[in-house]
């Protein structure tokens, strides 16, 4: 017979093995009775017109034929993407199910940016439903920005250049170039642009000069850039000229002289009677009657004849 201590030791070992086996069996059963989902990437990013896979992997399940659905959430609206075994809605001709439950979208557009939810129902599992959300971002390349550059600016005056692009996503940053050379954000950081007085804002695309100098003249263009790509506007020439103070003063004097001569001429014309006064051309003016003129003439002639006969 075995010693009692040895028998007790054997019983303990057997119970330990049995307990371990029970734990493994329980763990395996619990896992197999619960549907569980996982994903390789819950925040995919893709450029417009490319394909992307929304990864939804069934990690564990015991139901042989689970029900799989995909939903799209965008701007407060909820639509079905995959329902009752087929693709529907706007993705009907651009999406497909890959493997068991992953969704592939082809030729992506900006409207595909949204939250997608993968739902798997397993009626034979203890946990009958599991779901997984995926946030898709579709990046859009910028289009040609609208640029505004003043054609000419006097030395010492302020100037503002603008660059706007509204199609790209995410919002682009802006970078200005002069004569095909990039302008640093801070002109003081470059010996070539040290004397310039501009400030550049890469977020809103403005380039402002507080005091334009001769060295600021040149061809300017702007580049809009985001992770999907870049676009630029055509170069535009900005000229910088000196203000001719002597010329401006001379021009003013010439204008004043011409105005003075015109005034003198009008005054002389009035004095010489070239302009009829209002008393002569007004409504109260009446030319002498023709009859009165004849009578006066006859009277003068009568008097003359009378005087002549008297002398004879």
Q: How is this structure best described in words?
A:
The protein has 312 residues and is of the alpha+beta class. The chain is built from four helices and 21 strands. It has helices spanning 4-32, 245-271, 278-281, 290-311; strands at residues 36-38, 45-47, 52-54, 57-60, 67-74, 77-83, 86-87, 95-98, 102-105, 114-121, 129-139, 146-148, 152-154, 159-164, 173-178, 181-182, 198-200, 207-209, 218-226, 229-232, 236-241. A six-stranded mixed beta sheet has the order 2-11-10-5-6-7, with no helix packed on it. Strands 13, 15, 16, 19, 20 and 21 form a six-stranded mixed beta sheet that branches. It has a four-stranded antiparallel beta sheet with strand order 12-14-18-17, with no helix packed on it. Strand 17 and strand 18 (207-209) form a beta hairpin. The chain is elongated, with a radius of gyration of 49 Å. Residues 21-31 and 292-312 have low confidence and may be disordered.
What integer is the average pLDDT? 83
Measure the end-to-end span.
209 Å
User: How many H/I helices?
Assistant: 4
Helix-and-strand structural type: alpha+beta
Give the C-alpha Rg.
49 Å
What is the helix content? 25-40%
Sheet having the most strands? 6 strands, mixed
Q: In total, how many beta strands?
A: 21
Query: What pattern of helices and strands is seen along the backbone?
Result: HEEEEEEEEEEEEEEEEEEEEEHHH
The largest sheet has its strands arranged as 2-11-10-5-6-7
Strand residues, percent: 25-35%
- Categorize the overall geometry: elongated
The unreliable regions are: 21-31, 292-312
């Amino acid at each position: 017979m075995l010693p009692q201590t040895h028998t007790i030791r054997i019983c303990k070992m057997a119970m330990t093995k049995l307990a371990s086996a029970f734990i493994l069996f329980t763990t395996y059963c619990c896992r197999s009775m619960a549907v569980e989902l996982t994903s390789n990437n819950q925040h995919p990013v893709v450029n417009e017109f490319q394909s992307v896979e929304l990864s939804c992997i069934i990690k564990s399940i015991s139901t042989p034929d689970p029900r799989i659905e995909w939903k799209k959430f965008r701007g407060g609206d909820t639509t079905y993407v995959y329902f009752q075994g087929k693709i529907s809605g706007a993705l009907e001709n651009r999406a497909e199910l890959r493997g068991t439950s992953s969704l592939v979208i082809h030729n992506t557009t900006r409207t595909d940016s949204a939250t997608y939810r993968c739902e798997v129902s397993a009626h034979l599992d203890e946990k009958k439903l599991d779901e997984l959300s995926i946030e898709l971002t579709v990046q859009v390349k910028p289009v040609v920005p609208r640029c505004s550059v003043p054609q000419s600016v006097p030395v010492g005056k302020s100037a503002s250049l603008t660059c706007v692009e509204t199609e790209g996503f995410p919002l682009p940053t802006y970078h200005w170039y002069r004569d095909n050379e990039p302008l640093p954000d801070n002109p003081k950081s470059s010996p070539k642009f040290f004397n310039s007085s501009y400030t550049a804002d890469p977020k809103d695309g403005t380039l402002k000069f507080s005091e334009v100098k001769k060295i600021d003249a040149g061809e300017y263009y702007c580049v809009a850039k985001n992770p999907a790509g870049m676009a630029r506007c055509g170069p535009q020439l900005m000229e910088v000229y000196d203000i001719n103070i002597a010329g401006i003063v001379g021009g003013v004097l010439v204008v004043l002289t011409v105005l003075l001569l015109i005034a003198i001429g009008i005054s002389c014309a009035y004095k010489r009677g070239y302009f009829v006064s209002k008393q002569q051309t007004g409504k109260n003016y009446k030319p002498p009657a023709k009859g009165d003129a004849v009578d006066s003439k006859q009277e003068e002639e009568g008097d003359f004849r009378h005087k002549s006969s008297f002398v004879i």
